[in-house]
Amino acid sequence: MAWYDEDSWATAAFAPRGSTIAITFLLAVLLPVLLHQFLYRKATPTTLPSFLLIGPSGSGKTAFLTLTERKAVAQTHTSTAPLGVEVLLPEDYMPQSSHYRSPGDPAYERSRRFLLLDTPGHGKLRHFATKQLANPANVRGIIFVLDAASVAEETGLNETAEYLHDVLLALQKRYTEATTSKGPKEIPVLIAANKMDLFTALPPHLVTQQLEKAISDVRKSRAKGLKDSGRTLGGEDEDLDEEREWLGEGGEGSFEFVQMEEVGTTVTVHGGNVIGGESADVKSWYEWIAAQL
Amino acid sequence: MLDTFEILTTSGVVLWSRRYASVGPHIINSLIRDVFIEERVQPQTEDSGSKPTYRKEGYTLKWTTVKDLGLIFVAVYQSLVHMTWVDKLLDNIRALFVGLYGEQLENKKSSVVNCNKFAPYFERQIQELEGQSDGGSSATGAKLTPPSSTDNESADESVPKINPLQRQQKPLYDTSADSTPVPTPDTSRPTTPAQSHLLTGKAGPGAKLSRRGKKKAAALNSAPVSSGDEASVKRKGKASTKKNRVWGDFGAEEEDPSMVLDYSQSDLRDDAPEAEALEAIDPESWGSRTGKGQFVLKDLDLEMDQIIAEQNAKSQSGTPAASGGGLVGSSLGAIGGLFRNVVGGKTLTDEDLAKPLKGMEEHLLKKNVAREAAVRLCESVKRDLVGLKTSSFTTVESTIRTSMEKALTKILTPTSSLDLLREITTVNTSNRPYVLSIVGVNGVGKSTNLSKIAFFLLQNHHRVLIAAADTFRSGAVEQLRVHVRNLQELSKREGAGHVDLFEKGYGKDAANIAADAVAHAAKEGFNVVLIDTAGRRHNDQRLMSSLEKFAKLAKPDKILMVGEALVGSDSVAQARNFNQSFGPGRGLDGFVISKCDTVGDMVGTLVSMVHATGIPVVFLGVGQHYADLRGLNVGSVCRLLMS
After folding, report:
1. CA–CA separation, B121 vs A86, rounded Å?
2. Is residue B228 pLDDT above 90, yes or no?
3. Which GO terms describe its cellular component (chain B) (predicted)?
4. B32: which chain A residues are within 8 Å (Cβ-Cβ)?
5. Neighbours of B542 (CB within 10 A)
6. Residue A88: beta bridge partners?
7. Is B410 within 8 Å of A76 when comparing Cβ atoms?
8. How large is the ipTM?
9. Coil, helix or strand at residue B21
C-alpha cells in the first residue's frame, strides 16, 4: 500500500482534478464576495450626525424632540428610556456645510438630516446620557435643555448646575485623556434655556451668569468633599481618583463658560420656548444646529 | 367615570389620549417617577388578577405595559368611584393597540405613531364594558347606538387632530425609509401570517371582502380631505384600512389571491360618486337591525374581538408551541435554542430566564445581599427582560448580567444631591445651626463615624458641637471626650475649625439633652451640631419608641443611620425599623455603611439597605483613621458586586 490513500478526501483535495480546481476557484472567488456582503450588512448603513439632548427632568427635552420631528409639540411625560429619532432640519435653516449647494441638490436634502437623541433626565436614569458622553462617536453637539424658570430658584439651579458640571467635566476629561496629539473632535454645547414664555423665566444672559456662579460653587464643594470610595473598595482602578480633574483652568477662581474653549468645547446660551406663548420660539436653537451640520 | 386614558411610550411621548375631565400631567408623571423609576411603590404582580394601582391626590391610576414595544397604558379615575371594568379595558385596549399599530411601533427611529383613528375602537370598548357592568337590561341599550351619530362624532374629533401634520410630513419619512434602510429587529414578521390567517378565515363572504378592498383603494388614493357626510363613510373605511396596513399586504395576498382581483374591481366600482357608495353598502354586512329598528354596529365590534382574540392567542401560544411537535420537533427546537443562545436573537421567556436568574440570585447572596433584596433585583431583571430579544452574539447570561448591572446602578444612584457641605451653608444662612444625628444598632460604629464626620467638617472650617446624647452605656461620654480631645488637637495643628463637646452625664433623657445642645450651639455660634445617640436593637419596641420623641425635640436636619457592612440579611429589617421609628412624616435621610474595609468585595449590605428603604448611602467607613470616610461610587460598587 502506498503512503497515501487513493480514495481519501485529502488526496482528492490535492490532486489535479477538474472538480478540485472548480471548487477551489469558486471558493476563492466567492468567499471575499460573501465576506464583503456579510460585513457590509453588519455595518450600520449610514452614520448620521447626531445631537444629544441632555438636561434635568422636566426641562422639555422630549417636547423639543417632538417639535422637531412633527412640527408640533406632542404631550409628554417623564421619560424612562432614551429615544433616537431621525429628523430633518426645518426648511428655513441652511446647514453650514451646504451653503454653496443649490436647493435642488440631493445632497442638500441629505445634509439636513440628523439624529436627535433624547435621554431621560431623572437622577437615577442619567447613566444613559453618561454612556453616550463617554463614547460620543457621531455626536456633533450637545443640547443641554434647562428650565429657565426653575433656574431662578436655589434648588432648581443647583440641580441643573450639578448636571451641567458633570457633563462639561466628562467633555473635558475626554479631551485631556485623549492619546492623539491632535485631540478629539470638538463637541460644542448649546445651553437651551427653555420656557422663556413664563413670567418667572430668567433671560439668557442671567441664566449664563447664574449657571457660571453655581458651577463654581459646585466645583468648590466638590473640592472640599470626600473622596470617592472607588479606589479603596475596588483596588484595581488605582488611578481613578488619584488624579481628580477640575473643570476649567485647574479649578481655580470662578468658572466661566469661556474656559471650556480650551478643551474644545464651545458653550453657547440661547433662550427659547418649546410650548406656550403665541407659538414655539426655538429659532436660535435651530440656527445653532444648522451651524454644526 | 374614567377621567383620562393615555397611551404613552417609555421615552415619554403620549401616543394617544382621551380626556373626559382635566387631570394635571403631574399625576401621571408622579406615577412614572414613583413606580417605574424609583420603584418606591411596589406594584403587586399581575398574577393576582387585578392590575396594579397607584393613588395620588384623589385619583386612582391603573396601568399595564408592553415591555418590548415600550408602551404604557394608564387609566386615571377618581378614587371615590369604584370601577370594576378598568382592568378589562386596559387588557383589551392593550391588545387592540398592539394589534393595530404594532408594526409602526417597531420602527425605532421615530416617535410618531399614526393612530388618530383609534378613537372609535376606544369608544366602543368603553361602551361595551360600561354596558356589561351596568347589567343585563341596559347592556343592549348601551350597545345600540345609531351608527351615524357615533361615526360623525368620533370622526370629527379624531381626524383633524394630527392629520394635517401627518400628511405634511409623510413624504419625508417615506423617502428616509427608502434611502436608509434601518436595521430593525423584525419580531412581527413571523406573527403576521398567523394574524391574517385568523382574519381572513373569519371574514365574511364576498360582500365584506370587496368592501374592504374598496377601503384599501380609498386609502391608496391618499385620503382626500373630507367633510360633512363623507366623514361617516370614511371613518368606516379607515377602521378597516387600518387593518390592512397592519397585517401587511403580503399576508392578505398570500392567503387569498382573489382579494387582489376584488380590490381592482371595487376600485372600478368605487369611481362612482361618494354619495352613491354610501347607499350601496349593504346594511347586513356592517350591522344588523334589531327588533326596534336600531342598528347594532357589528363590524367594529367583530373586528375588535378578532384583534383581541388574536393577541390573546399569540400570548398563549408561546408556551404550547415550544412543547409541541413531537420528539424530533422538540430536539430540533432545543438545538435551535442552544444555537440562538450563542448567536443571539432569542426571544426570552420565563423558562429561559429561570435558571440563569437562580444563578444570579446565588451570586448576589454570596456577595452578602439579603435574600429579599436579591429576589427583588432578580424580579426586576425578569420584568425587564421577559419578551425581549437578545441582541446578536450575546448569550442569555450576559444579557442578564447587563440588565442586573443596570438595575443595581438604578437602585444605588441617589435621587437628590447628597452634598452635605452645601446643605450646611444653606441652613446656616437662616441663622441656625445644622443638626445632624446618628442612630444605629449597638456596636456598629456610631461614635467612630460621628467623629469621622466631625473631622471632615472641621477640615472645611466649620464650628462643630458634638452632643453626647448616649446617656445609657457606661463609657459612652468618655469615649466621645477622647475623640473631641483628639480632634481639637488635630484642628489646632492644622488651623482648621473648632470643636467642642456638650455633655450632661448619664441617666438623663436623651431627647432633652439633644434639644439643649441645639439651643446651646445657636447661642454660642456653632454651625453644626452632631448628636450621638445610644445604640438600640431595632426590634426592641421600648427602646425604639424613644426615637420619636428625640426627632420631635431635637429636630435634626439630617438623620443618618450607621449600618455594618458585615451584617447579612438582618440589614433589611434594621433599615426598615429605624426608618419607621421617627413617627409619621419623618424618616432616615441616609446611611453610613461602616467597616467596608473588612468585607472585601462582599458589599451586599449596601444594596440590601437601600432596597429596603429607598434611602441613599451617604458615607462609607473604610478604615480606622479619622480620614477614612468616603462617598459612594456607584460604578465601583456595581463592579464589585458583579465580579
Report:
1. 30
2. no
3. signal recognition particle receptor complex
4. 77-78, 80
5. 8
6. A113
7. no
8. 0.75
9. coil
CB contact at 8 A, B492 and B458:
no
Name the nearest CA neighbour of B111 among A94, A71, A135: A71
Its pTM stands at: 0.71
Query: What is the fold of A50-225+239-292?
Result: Rossmann fold (3.40.50)
B295: alpha, beta or left? (left if phi > 0; alpha if psi -120 to 50) = beta
One domain, residues B353 and B499 = no
Residue A29 has pLDDT above 90, yes or no: yes
In the numeric block, which cell numbers belong to residue B429?
Answer: 444662612
**Do B473 and B522 reside in the same domain of the chain?**
yes
In a mutational test of the B interface, the residue from A42, A77, A108, A124 whose CB has the highest number of chain B CBs within 10 Å is A77
Placement of cell 451584617 in the chain: B567
> Does A39 lie at the interface with B, CB-CB under 8 angstroms?
no
Determine the 3-state secondary structure of B243 from DSSP: helix
Q: Kindly state whether residues B474 and B601 are assigned to the same domain.
A: yes
* Strand pairing report for B287-289 and B295-297: antiparallel
The model's confidence at residue B459, banded by pLDDT at 50, 70 and 90, is confident
What is the grid cell recorded at B475? Answer: 463609657
Q: pLDDT per residue over B5-35, tens digit each? A: 888 888 888 888 888 887 778 888 888 888 8
Considering only CA atoms, give the Rg of chain B.
Answer: 33
SS3 B13: strand
Going by their DSSP bridges, the two strands B629-630 and B617-621 should be labelled as: antiparallel
Do residue B615 and residue B531 come from a single domain? yes
CA distance B606 to B572: 10
Residue contact A233–B633, C-beta within 8 A: yes
For residues A121 and A123, give the distance between their C-alpha atoms in angstroms, rounded to a whole number.
6
Q: Is B389 helix (H, G, I), strand (E, B) or coil?
A: strand
**d(Cα A81, Cα B215) in Å, to the nearest integer?**
37
Give the residue carrying C-alpha cell 401627518.
Answer: B166
Nearest to A289 by CA among A114, A146, A79, A148: A114
| pLDDT tens-digit map of B420-433 | 888 888 888 888 89
Unique residue bearing C-alpha cell 432616615? B588
The upper half-sphere exposure of residue B509, i.e. CA atoms within 13 Å in the direction of its Cβ, equals: 11
Q: What range defines the domain where residue B406 resides?
A: 326-412
Tell me chain A's radius of gyration from C-alpha atoms: 27
